[in-house]
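Teaching note: in complex prediction, the entire set of molecules is handled at once rather than each chain in isolation. The prompt given to students was simply: 'Predict the structure of this complex.' The entities are:
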Amino acid sequence: MAIVSQNKVHIIVIVLITLGVGAGLFLPSLIDIEPAPLVLSEKIKGVIIESPPGVLPDFNLTSQNGTPFTKKELDGKWSLVFFGYTNCPDVCPTTMGTLDRVSRQQDVPTDTQYLFVSVDPKRDTAEKLKEFIGFFKNDKFTALRGERAEIDKLTEKIGVTFDYEEAGADGNYIVNHYAAIFVIDPKARVRAYILPPHDVARVTEVYRAVRSYYSG
Amino acid sequence: MVRSLARGIGVITAGGTSVGWFFAGSLALLFVATTARADLIVENTWVRDAPPNAYMRAGYGTFRNDGPQAITITDVRSPDFDRAEVHETSFKNGMMTMRRVEKIVVAPGGRFDFSPNGNHVMLIAPKRAVHKGDKIEMEWVLTGGTVVKSVAEVRGAP
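The expected output is the structure of the full assembly:
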């Protein structure tokens, strides 16, 4: 009898331990416990880690092909996002060129999507977006536009500021805009933003570090 | 005089900078030219490849002043575009702004760089479709009205 009851105690203990370990393993992923903020190497400057991450609001945009692009398109994949305008002569093509090269780095996961969001919806028609994004010949690139209200909703949430300078005689105007690259995780959360100016090595290193740390 | 001659050759081979004068046979004239005009060297020029009808595109390069006096550039124009302006890109707290640069002063022995995310020539309203490999002429107007020409090839970023 005594032996049996000792066995019962053993079983209960084992069951409790199993439950405890199980809960310990699975609970964090169930309730999304936020890990301590990623600390990057001291050599890397100009990167802000969002901890806890900001969740993007729902939005309704369309791609350069006119197809709808909502928050759902961010689900399940990592995205690098840049806000700009297609008439931008210097910074926007420079940054998209940098992202193009980042996307071709051997150690950058190929399932990454690269998004260019126009903050100049008045001039940036789908056709203009197509011309601009098509120029990079990169099938991982998507250019997006939307009604001003949709752009505002998105940019206000993540702190992208922009303003239009007074138009010249030809009606042309310059847009000043926040020029960070946003690292968005597969749950549409802003994990980090990389401040300009950008170079391929820094963007690659930061993206890899952020992705590997927050994928765990 | 030999130094002036060498400098003159340097200018001609520096890539697209034509200053005139150098073909003058007289060494005296050559000397005048180098002190008065040839001191501004425009090199490493290129214009960013973009969609052929892009309304604005950027040009880059370097000014070098090999002379003993400061050189002031007050205007730029290109026969292929309605307008050209020098702009400076700057970043403050991640915000990109562009400011028009009214004049550029290059100190004796100094240089002024145009490069992505920095100073650039903004070429506005093309008069024709611009393609990769095209040569874009630019004219730089110096104080006093002297014009220095440069040529930049359209290509992708290095």
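Point out the following to students. The longest strand of chain A covers residues 47-55. The mean pLDDT of chain A is 91.
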